[in-house]
Design goal:
Number of helices: 17
Strand order of the largest sheet: 8-9-10-1-11-16-12-15-13-14
Structural class: alpha+beta
Helix content: 25-40%
Radius of gyration: 24 Å
Largest sheet: 10 strands, mixed
Distance between the termini: 61 Å
Strand content: 15-25%
Number of strands: 16
Shape: globular
Length: 581
């Protein structure tokens, strides 16, 4: 099996990208009696989205409500400090040294203080230095040797009476802001799950955990890592200790299947303004929009379609905006399919020609004109998988924007299985346009859409040749989004491997000079295009719909990040009064 180290996992980047949209808290601003029902696209599967495989978009989005963070996202996607939680200081750039200091006010929902033991948990779980690959101590949080937090090889120093943690990187790391934050789960709760009743209080459990991490006691840490991996799944009764949170909201009730969650504003300073929030999963976007229009829900988001925009007209308010997610195609090169060199007797050049020729049949401009421009007339094609701002499409052999199918001679006779989310009207329309264009080049597309497409994508490389879905990159972590193209990246489930690409990823990740880093990322975009591994399409227009329960428009959001905008939710005082009567 090919080794899957993590360069910087998109799971963590997605989690950190889900931190609250900025709105500086000024004391407790929660309006008594206010409530909001949010219709989301999928049920939550786990309360610990750090674990690979328990990090769905729904899992990460809920964490924005229930986790404390040193960071907050501005409406434009940039990252800024959350001074109400703590302080982040770069003490030195050589070696890169960063100190995280909690302000002392953050607490877990069981009353325990958020402290350095919790911060140390983040390091332990996301480094190989506290993992025994051949034994029972493993966290499954995507740690990769020599990558990300693994570049902090020395145990971080606890200071300020247990309120701070100082990390010293062995080499510069460009995305250090995205690599580390407070964890979504509590160290003392993990210890209680691992050693029930052994420690008399949270302080004793925290001390035991800190001592074990500092001493490298992998035997003691083994059951803690097991609890970290296994006890937060929503596949039955979730232990009380696994429900401990430290964000703006506490969990009051959660359905076994994660389809309905009731939350109440935590009793501490935060950006929350709504007292009670109910999260309801509704897979069908039309059902979600109808729920808001009909008064069953108050807020939702979906990829915009004309029919949904029309239906949203009956709601209190709606808006279509250009979103962060962008649709794209990824090609599977290691599943024994049509783009795998193994299908051509191990000839990588023949496989490359097949990939490039197939991508050349994709009618990007027509797809944009028919599916996006009716909603956002000025939306452009996206020209890079990493950088969307290139003024011209990437160089050959990436496809021309118009999908000149007649020139794709190397594509003739190919049969390409395309995976995408089942029941997704826009992706089905994209597939239809792709199929029509491909057929003119003698290419047959086979629809292998699946309701379980994310699992198929990760676990069944032999079940598809191309995957059509959206990436939602964090604008403040460009390098992190690029690392998926590294041979050893955990999120590289496609078998992509190229020495030049790997070197560019490493160089960009270690460059603290913005100008130099941008140059390397531009070169990386060109290299990925030359490899014909993937094809960017366009940003997905996002529809946000809300009811009169909100006193004003919420921040724009995709369906995957609707909860992360909670700081922009302003309750309507009249609606809150009516609901409280």
């Amino acid at each position: 099996m090919r080794r899957r180290a993590l360069v910087t996992t998109l799971a963590l980047i997605g989690l950190l990208a889900g931190v609250v949209v900025a709105c500086a808290p000024e004391g407790n601003r929660v309006l008594p009696g206010s409530s909001l029902t949010v219709a989301t696209a999928a049920p939550v599967t786990s309360l610990n989205p750090l674990v690979v495989g328990q990090d769905t978009a729904a899992d990460r989005d809920l964490s924005a409500l229930t986790s404390g963070s040193f960071w907050q996202r501005e409406v434009d996607g940039t990252r800024s400090a959350n001074e109400g939680f703590g302080d982040v200081r770069v003490l030195s750039s050589d070696p890169l040294t960063v100190r995280y200091t909690l302000d002392g006010s953050a607490t877990w929902s069981d009353g325990a203080t958020v402290d350095a033991a919790d911060l140390l948990l983040m390091w332990a779980a996301r480094t190989t230095h506290r993992t025994d690959a051949a034994g029972e101590t493993h966290w499954d949080a995507g740690a990769g040797a020599g990558q990300g937090l693994d570049l902090v090889s020395a145990v971080p120093e606890v200071g300020d009476d247990g309120r701070s943690l100082t990390l010293v990187y062995d080499t510069p790391y460009a995305d250090w802001q995205s690599a580390f934050d407070a964890p979504p789960v509590a160290a003392h709760a993990l210890v209680e799950l691992a050693y029930p009743g052994r420690y008399e209080d949270p302080a004793a459990a925290k001390t035991a955990f800190t001592d074990a991490v500092e001493a490298g006691d992998l035997d003691w840490l083994a059951p803690v890592s097991r609890a970290f991996r296994e006890d937060f799944r929503l596949d039955g009764d979730v232990p009380d200790a696994a429900r401990v949170t430290a964000g703006a909201y506490d969990i009051a009730r959660i359905a076994d299947d994660g389809g309905a969650i009731d939350l109440v504003a935590a009793d501490h300073q935060s950006a929350a303004r709504i007292e009670r929030v109910r999260v309801r999963a509704m897979a069908d976007p039309a059902e979600r929009v109808a729920a808001v229009a009909g008064g069953e829900a108050d807020l939702t988001a979906a990829a915009a379609e004309e029919s949904l925009v029309d239906a949203a007209g009956a709601a209190g308010g709606s808006r279509v905006s250009s979103g962060e997610p962008f649709d794209h195609l990824d090609l599977q090169t290691a599943g024994g399919g049509v783009f795998d060199p193994a299908s051509y007797g191990g000839d990588p050049e023949r496989a490359h020609r097949a990939r490039a020729a197939f991508l050349d049949t994709v009618p990007r401009q027509r797809m944009l004109d028919e599916l996006v421009h009716p909603l956002l007339a000025d939306e452009p094609l996206r020209h890079g998988m990493i950088d969307a701002t290139e003024s011209e499409p990437a160089a050959s052999p990436s496809p021309a924007p118009d999908g000149t199918a007649g020139e794709a001679a190397d594509a003739a006779g190919l049969t390409v299985r395309v995976l995408y989310p089942a029941g997704d009207a826009r992706r089905a329309a994209e597939f239809s346009l792709m199929s029509e264009s491909a057929s003119r080049a003698g290419v047959t597309l086979v629809d292998v859409s699946s309701p379980d497409w994310e699992r198929v994508l990760r676990e069944q490389p032999d079940a598809y040749d191309a995957a059509l879905f959206a990436w939602s990159p964090d604008p403040s972590s460009t390098v992190a989004a690029a690392t998926v193209f590294h041979t050893a990246a955990a999120q590289n489930v496609y078998g992509w491997s190229d020495e030049t690409v790997d070197a560019l990823v490493v160089d960009a990740s270690s460059s603290l000079d913005r100008s130099r880093r941008d140059q390397l990322l531009s070169q990386l975009d060109d290299a990925v295009s030359d490899a014909a591994w993937a094809l960017p399409l366009f940003a997905v227009p996002q529809l946000t719909v809300w009811s009169d329960a909100l006193g004003g428009p919420p921040a724009p959001a995709s369906a995957d990040r609707i909860l992360s905008t909670f700081a922009s939710w302003q309750p309507d005082r009249g609606a809150a009064t009516a609901r409280g009567e």
